[in-house]
Please model this.
Amino acid sequence: MPVFGAKSFDNHETVVFCHDRESGLKAIIAVHDTTLGPALGGCRMWPYASEKEALDDVLRLSRGMTYKSAISGINHGGGKSVVIGDSRTDKTDALFEALGRFVNDQSGQYIVAEDVGTSVPDMEIVRRTTRHVAGIAEGGVGDPSPATAWGVFHGIRAAARHKLGRDDLKDVKVAVQGLGHVGFILCQHLAEAGAKLVVSDLNDDAVRSAQQKFGATACSADAIYGQDVDVFAPCALGAVVNDDTLAQIKAQVIAGSANNQLAEDRHGQALADRGILYAPDYVINAGGIIAISHEGAKYDKQEAFDHVAGIYETLDRIFIRSAADGQPPNEIADRMAEERIAKIRADRAEGPTTTKRMAASA
Ligand code: NAD
Model:
């Protein structure tokens, strides 16, 4: 199984394979790029069918974190970890303590947090063996979902301004797919702003609750794509923009929390061709990581959430450049993230040379 030669490797700085005999931990820590600062990224626990699948996933996710931090203006690099196992049956204290020891061995170049399959209580256990852990409840963000939902709300406002000519959302029709940790709180913000909601979830209780609390209209899981709404907010699954759904989507804006919303990159252009404005997923759903980047000696929630609301301005810049350059927003977001990293690299490369030149001429 090639690592350096893997398609997903893409210039990673560090890939660590972790095995702990006593707890049975099998994990991979990947640090993609630390140009902007120590790599920050969650730990995913998943019963991968093969080691190759786990490696590909951690590399892909870690690279994604580099872009997410860079576009969000935070001084962190991109990293991620995966634990191979079933989060419903394989969790033990010893497993997470062992993970913490491996994280600690990275000397602060990788900071772990929760992700799919891991939780705030798991990270509290990780903290027993390393201080390089974020997203914990005490003195920190805890569950990042409220921050994520806050960012998505402001992202929807930014997209509405560009596409609908207004960002107040009063009577704007929004279809929310998924009423989980993020989707439900998002509905609350949207309802407070006067938006009209259509919702779908496989969980009937969540749907009933949204109907009662927010006056939402319910629709089936399959019918959500074809709703006659202004905004479609995917907050459940990845790959929801694909060849099948493209033909159904009537919304003028797609803006939601789900990761990897485009089945393939080319679907970003396909949306633009149809006049649908797409808020790149890793930009609009960065609220959690932005809030976590505020953790430290004194976490100020208000300050962190104000920073999260800045997703509005970030998307504004992306949409303006997208219109000017005639390139879809997902491609523009990638360029802007790469430019920020390249600038810092160039500044650094210049620093010592300039000093050397000055020393030589003195
Ligand atoms: P969650 O598991 O709490 O909620 C997902 C919801 O989607 C569940 O209620 C589930 O029943 C529902 N669902 C699943 N399949 C569905 C379908 N076909 N149709 C309608 N509903 C369906 O997850 P979450 O934490 O709310 O995250 C939602 C999305 O946002 C995920 O893609 C996640 O990766 C992404 N995300 C979350 C955060 C965060 O802070 N939680 C941060 C960044 C990105």
In short: The chain has 13 helices and eleven strands. The chain has a mean pLDDT of 95. The chain has two domains: 14-126, 145-332.
